[in-house]
Amino acid sequence: MGCCTSQYSRLSEEISLADRILPNIPPTTSKLRDLTSSERSQLLRLFSEFDTTSSSHLTLEDIRSGLVTFGKSPSTRSLQRIIKQCHLSSAPKDTVDEKGFMLAICSRRSLLWEFLYTDYDTIEELEKESMKKSKGWRFGV
């Protein structure tokens, strides 16, 4: 897969799922405490793009709607995995709060990050690519 087509923002007001403008979080940032106030604002703005009901918690439907707006086609299985990866015990069951959301993006280790920052449209595509890479690595391909 090639580089994603999303643009990166420097200002939180520019963040937009519909326009495919995402926060620009440096690769060296992996923890919330490493975020600048501008980066934190951008992530909170991105969270609000998903949180259309202003409930401060994202449901499976909120995440589906946001990803569809962004041009992705998440399966229910993918969405359930995102919820599982991003859910913190402080959030209501089967939801993602701001902190869990920001951690998922910041750490770059979540399916949500993969959907937003790479060209993958489905979890199946991502898994196929991972399998190819692991087979190629093992067999020197």
Automatic annotation (TrEMBL):
Gene3D superfamilies: EF-hand (1.10.238.10)
Single GO MF annotation: calcium ion binding
PROSITE patterns, per database record: EF_HAND_2
Positions of the EF-hand domain: 38-73
Protein name (Swiss-Prot/TrEMBL): EF-hand domain-containing protein
Upper classification of the organism: Eukaryota, Sar, Stramenopiles, Ochrophyta, Bolidophyceae
